[in-house]
Amino acid sequence: MIRVLVTDDEPLIRAGIRMILSSAEDIEVVAEAADGREAVELARTHQVDVALLDLQMPVMDGLTALAELRRAAPRVRVLILTTFGERQNVLRALSGGSAGFLLKDSAPAELMRAVRAAAAGEAYLSPGATRHVVDSLASGGTAQREEQARRRLEKLTERELEVLALLGEGLSNADAGQRIHMSEATVKAYVSRILAKLECENRVQAALLARDAGLGV
Q1: Domain of life here (predicted)?
Q2: What percent of the chain is helix, strand and coil (3-state, nearest 5)?
Q3: Of 189, 195, 198, 215, which shows the fewest CB atoms inside 10 Å?
Q4: What b/e sequence results for 5-22 when a residue is b if at least 16 CB atoms lie within 10 Å of its CB, and e otherwise?
Q5: Residues 6+ apart with CB under 8 A from 152
Q6: How far is CA 10 from the centre of its chain?
Q7: Is the separation of the CB atoms in 153 and 215 below 8 Å?
């Protein structure tokens, strides 16, 4: 069982997430917290595998709680749950060791998929989150950055470039597969190869590189 902690200052949101996750046979919500400080305490005492953290909370916000969790309970994988406001928060959480991002309006299936991915040690960034980050950070590009990006993409095959362009649009593996008539598993394999060739840590970095190079734009 994947043991999950849900943290949000709104009781209705916590209840909704609990209801969704409890419908999965392999996921158990073992604790709920209304602020970051409470989340850190509960994560240590309930042997939590995955912690869902809202960004905007009283007492201790999600970014501060993330930093505390990385120190106090480093084995806990943290997913940031947000509506997305400031892009700087996104960058700080990514660099602070979060396992990924999930938008609050995500579908129930995506919520469960994100929790399973985080528990398995994988990074998860929802398509909506990817699209938001790329759109926010890709603005104001320079000719030099564009040229550097294009040189890095030279090592990719034509098919890999096609998949990368879809990452730049923020599509999920499933949606990308439907677009180019591939199975989701095949797209996932392509994404893994692309990340390795480009030396990118996650699909957001790859998507930014695609946008810098003007791929698919």
Answers
A1: Bacteria
A2: 55, 15, 30
A3: 189
A4: bbbbbeeebbebbeebbe
A5: 198, 209, 213
A6: 22
A7: yes
Extract the tokens encoding 168: 């730049």
What is the number of residues in the chain? 217
CB of 134 closer than 8 Å to CB of 159: no
From first to last of its 217 residues, the chain has per-residue pLDDT tens of 999 999 999 999 999 999 999 999 999 999 999 999 999 999 989 999 999 999 888 899 888 999 999 888 889 999 988 775 555 666 677 667 788 888 888 889 989 988 998 898 777 777 666 666 656 555 555 667 778 888 899 999 999 999 999 888 777 788 889 999 999 999 999 999 999 999 887 777 788 788 788 886 5
Torsion of CA 125, 73, 60, 50, to 10 degrees: 40
Around 66, how many Cα atoms within 13 Å sit in the side-chain half-sphere?
27
Alpha-carbon gap, residue 25 to 11, rounded angstroms: 23
CA distance 216 to 213: 9
Q: What is the DSSP letter of 168?
A: H
DSSP 37: H
Which residues have CB under 8 Å from 167's CB, separation 6+? 130, 176, 191, 194, 203, 206, 207, 210
- Gap between the Cα atoms of 95 and 59, Å rounded: 23
Place of tokens 């949606």: 175
At 33, the amino acid letter reads: A
